[in-house]
Amino acid sequence: MLRTRFTEEFGIEHPIVQGGMMWVGRAELVAAVANAGALGFITALTQPTPDDLRAEVARTRELTDRPFGVNLTILPSITPPPYEEYRQAIIDSGVTIVEIAGANPAVHTAHLKEHGIKVIHKATSVKHALKAQQVGVDAVSIDGFECAGHPGEQDIPGLVLIPAAARVLDIPVLASGGIADGRGLAAALALGADGVNMGTRFLCTQESSIHHAVKEKIVANSELETQLIFRTLGNTARVADNEVSRKVVEIERAGGTFADIADLVSGRRGRKVFENGDLDAGIWSAGLCQGLIDDIPTVAELVDRMVAEATEIITHRLAELVAAPVSADRA
Ligand SMILES: Cc1cc2nc3c(=O)[nH]c(=O)nc-3n(C[C@H](O)[C@H](O)[C@H](O)COP(=O)(O)O)c2cc1C
Fold it and tell me: What InterPro entries does this protein map onto (predicted)?
């Protein structure tokens, strides 16, 4: 058992979180994560309407009686979804934990906290993490440059970003980005985090609803096989390397505008990758930790072995370094 402020304050067995994932954060995965003793998030906007979100929460409850949450992601959009209605659906459904990503959490946090809901804010900089703490969130998930999805524009990897955040924040910190195993979990705790948030690793589990070909591609990919798109738009996203992401980067470098890449990056195309396993149909998020992933376990196998490995590292490998006598020839 690894107990931290996060496990205590959120009532979760293990300090491991499955972050929101568009098209992926559905009942089966979230319930499997909850049943494994970790914290999973349904992704609100994967559901076409707020009523569908209500139904997805109900479906998740049929599969688990343990705590789980809902992720609400607020990103620049040509036709913004009705965020307030999704927020109301979350409140009506009696969900107790919400992950907010992508924008200043002030407005949503105030409403959610009025209903006793705990809020985790996902940030990519110490400045934004501090701001989130100021507006009253209960924990911060801080995404380093390694992460899948949106790493922000400052390019600070977790080895620096996590301790930089942990040393100034009073609320629990979840280290996010690049974590795929017990070594990453132990390292995050050593850096001052109270738990870890993972996307790519949970994407590649038995219970994630995506096509098997995508999971096999993640296993085959190394840490070199991602692209950073939307750099020129100030809205960087780390996605898997494929024909489409390479084309988007090429158009951006040649001075193209959003209109020139809009079709290539559409959600409709990206969804096809996950549904049909057509790896070059569109863009799909994946992080650098692909290079550390070489199997497709069940969620329970993954969580159990991460906790066992981190515990072994902390109690044996690292502890033995302290206890080891200096050998005669090194003295
Ligand atoms: C396929 C996929 C979709 C994602 N979609 C979202 C999303 O809709 N909202 C969000 O806040 N984060 C999203 N993320 C980011 C994850 O929640 C998490 O922060 C990130 O994956 C952590 O980095 P890692 O992949 O190295 O573990 C997504 C990640 C993946 C892999």
Answer: Aldolase_TIM (IPR013785), NMO (IPR004136)
